[in-house]
Design goal:
By secondary structure, this protein is mainly alpha-helical. It folds into two domains: 1-44, no CATH class; 55-106, PDCD5, DNA-binding domain (Helicase, Ruva Protein, domain 3), CATH 1.10.8. Helices cover 71% and strands 0% of the residues. The chain has helices at 3-21, 26-54, 57-69, 71-86, 96-110. The longest helix has 29 residues, at 26-54. The chain is flat and about 75 Å long.
Length: 129
């Protein structure tokens, strides 16, 4: 392989790396991203441990199945359970039946009545005169 060819390959590779990384300050940026990811992971781990203490195994199973279909709804129920546990409102493990009742209560509160609006259009042939 020729020396100019090797130099061209090196330059191309350096440009690719600079484009992906964003330059010299990239080392700090990667470290910050890794630190943030680690904090998120730890927070999620604490969250799951608290839910494990609050929910029975059947209730946790049901909540995980709900999370597969409606992740935002499951997350809001988890938040509600965690807040209740932190404020001392939950003294014993939440059973599956109690979780179902809680879900039904949340559904009733968040259900919106369908709104139908009918707009009649005037036809060119209408004789309203």
């Amino acid at each position: 392989m020729d020396d100019p060819e090797l130099e061209a390959i090196r330059q191309r590779r350096i440009r690719e790396l600079m484009g992906k990384g964003g330059g010299g300050a990239n080392g700090q940026n990667k470290e910050q991203q890794q630190a943030q990811e680690e904090q998120k992971r730890e927070a999620e781990e604490r969250r799951q441990m608290l839910l494990a203490r609050v929910l029975s195994s059947e209730a946790r199973e049901r909540l995980s199945r709900i999370a597969l279909v409606k992740p935002e709804k499951a997350r809001s129920v988890e938040d509600l359970l965690i807040r209740s546990a932190q404020m001392g409102q939950i003294t014993e493990k939440v059973s599956e039946e109690r979780l179902i009742a809680l879900l039904e209560q949340i559904n009733e509160q968040t259900q919106k009545a369908p709104k139908v609006t009918i707009q009649r259009r005037r036809s060119v042939l209408d004789d309203d005169d």
